[in-house]
Amino acid sequence: MQFFIYGKKELSHLQAKDEMLSQAIKRIGLIQREVTPDLFEALIHSIVGQQIAAKAHKTVWSRMKAELKCITPCSIEAVNEGELQSFGISFRKANYIKNAAHMVSSGALDLDGLRSLSDDEVCAKLTCLKGIGVWTAEMLMLFSMQRSNIISYGDYAIRKGICMLYGYEQLDKKLFDKHKNNYAPYASTASLYLWAIAGGA
């Protein structure tokens, strides 16, 4: 099991820039958030989990890994959409998963090549895939690629965490961007704390 890597450098920067967040960091302490370094596996995992409860996601994923052993373009291409559905996946998701495997195995999407691109470029590449929107791309950049400056306006819990921390009744994009710029270049670490705050930490 691997966790998102951050430490004194990131925390010191955030605490120096934002007193409210600094107090929250001191109160909450170190957060360990699991990551999936294999970007293809993380991609398929994210598709499986779309619009289903966390418990159901875990069950379906466990079935899938038990049957396929490893999640690679080859292992996905070796099964048909009906077999994918038998794990508890909808037909639409099965189609998205097969398409992702084909895009990677054919070379149409170079996952390793994404590592040399900017965050915006990675987002643009990933959202070309069926079933992958901006939020999913941002989560892949954070929890697989471990990019340092990811915070998602499309994430309800992130917005909730900001509102709770600063006492806002509502949060528009302009105000969100103000905080994002303040957290840069370590917004990913701020995201971990905002999720914790939204969850009641």
Radius of gyration: 18 Å
Overall average pLDDT: 95
The number of strands is 2
Q: Tell me about the biggest sheet? A: 2 strands, antiparallel
User: How many domains make up the 3D coordinates?
Assistant: 2
Structural class: mainly alpha
The CATH homologous superfamily of the largest domain: Hypothetical protein, domain 2
Helical fraction? 55-70%
Number of helices: 12
The rough form would be described as: elongated
Residue windows where pLDDT falls under 50 for at least 5 positions:
none
Q: Per CATH, what is the topology of the largest domain?
A: Endonuclease III, domain 1
Reading the helices and strands in chain order gives EHHEHHHHHHHHHH
- Strand numbers in spatial order across the main sheet: 1-2
CATH architectural category of the largest domain: Orthogonal Bundle
Question: What is the level 1 CATH name of the largest domain?
Answer: Mainly Alpha
How many angstroms does the end-to-end distance come to? 23 Å
Strand content range: under 5%
Describe the structure.
With 201 residues, the chain is mainly α. The protein has two domains: 8-33 and 150-198, Endonuclease Iii, domain 2 (Orthogonal Bundle), CATH 1.10.1670; 36-143, Hypothetical protein, domain 2 (Endonuclease III, domain 1), CATH 1.10.340. It has helices at 8-17, 19-28, 39-48, 54-68, 73-77, 81-85, 91-105, 119-126, 134-143, 156-166, 173-183, 187-198; strands spanning 2-3, 34-35. The protein has a two-stranded antiparallel sheet. Helix 8 (119-126) crosses helix 9 (134-143) and helix 10 packs across helix 12 (187-198). The longest helix is centred in the N-terminal third of the chain and has 15 residues, at 54-68. The radius of gyration is 18 Å and the shape is elongated. The relative contact order is 0.15.
